[in-house]
Write a structure and sequence with these properties.
Layout (H helix, E strand, L loop, with lengths): L5 E4 L4 H12 L4 E5 L4 E2 L8 H5 L4 E5 L7 H10 L4 E5 L15 H14 L4 E7 L12 H6 L1 E4 L11 H13 L6 E5 L7 H12 L4 E4 L2 H10 L4 H15 L9 H6 L6 H10 L6
Parallel strand pairs: 1-2, 1-4, 2-3, 4-5, 5-6, 6-8, 7-9
């Protein structure tokens, strides 16, 4: 049974845009929502929730960082007749110390998980590790383009998850049976150190990039000097703590469990991103 039409919150983001595309490719009616989209949705403006939810049966939920609004939204979704929720969470949020001494991120994600799990509609939780696409679309891209990644990430090995796989699991959970009440931990098929990541990018593009490991304090100080607010800089440092500690090396089975296939490997992501023009000067 397909839970359609589907509302995709954050429909222009890394995961949301791909969920929208993959649902559309399946012929599923999609309502892509964001603060600036045709279907307006603002986590901080509840007057936008009702119109976005009107007539919707399934919702892909990307929470707002630092604002625990998911519980109120789930209540609104249940009142609107939504039957299925798929929540984007994060790997390690239920492991004490996964993000070092910073606990806010884990607490926020866990609060969101609790909200969907107790809210009434069927639910599925996705817990991905670090996105491969951060190198081409996200936080690491500027460093790749400048020729140097300066990060507090130790040897930098992680089982980077291709966001296309995250979207594929979300789409399966929104359009198929058998995923309700499941929490899927998602990763790529093998850990890849930053040195190998940069070698693969160089092989695909000819672009040479070096990795310079920093301490967390050095990293925060550099970001603050660049104009990043200190709380945001500290949040990024905490997010990289599990890479530095080796926690993100772990290979998780969620893609295989949800889709019956292996996750895409990092080399395939690099080849596709390079072919699409990523890292082009």
């Amino acid at each position: 049974m397909t839970f359609e039409p589907v509302l995709v919150i954050g429909g222009t983001g890394k995961t949301g845009s791909r969920v929208v595309r993959q649902l559309t490719e399946r012929g599923v009616p999609v309502r892509a929502a964001s603060r600036s989209a045709e279907h307006r949705f603002d986590w901080l403006d509840e007057s936008t929730w009702g119109p976005a939810l009107d007539g919707v049966r399934g919702v892909y939920v990307v929470q707002l960082d630092g604002a625990r609004r998911t519980g109120a939204f789930v209540e609104a979704a249940a009142r609107a007749g939504v039957e299925r929720l798929v929540l984007l969470s994060a790997r390690g949020v239920d492991t004490p110390g996964y993000y070092g001494s910073a606990t806010e991120t884990s607490e926020d994600f866990l609060a969101g998980e609790a909200a969907v799990q107790g809210g009434g509609p069927d639910w599925t939780v996705l817990r991905p590790g670090w996105f491969a696409q951060n190198f081409s679309e996200g936080f690491f891209n500027d460093g790749v383009l400048s020729g140097e990644l300066r990060l507090p990430a130790g040897d930098g090995a992680a089982s980077w998850i291709d966001v296309e796989d995250i979207a594929a699991v979300a789409v399966a959970a929104l359009t198929e049976e058998g995923h309700a009440g499941r929490t899927y931990e998602l990763s790529g098929p093998a850990p890849v150190p930053l040195s190998e990541v940069l070698d693969l990018i160089r092989g695909a593009t000819g672009r040479t990039v070096r990795y310079t490991p920093l301490t967390a304090d050095e990293f925060v100080a550099e970001l603050v000097e660049q104009g990043v607010p200190k709380p945001d800089a500290e949040m990024w440092a905490a997010a990289m703590h599990p890479i530095a500690q080796g926690y993100e090396r772990k290979v998780s089975d969620g893609v295989r469990e949800a889709l019956g296939r292996e996750p895409r490997d990092f080399a395939a992501y690099v080849a596709d991103a390079a072919a699409a023009g990523a890292w082009r000067a």
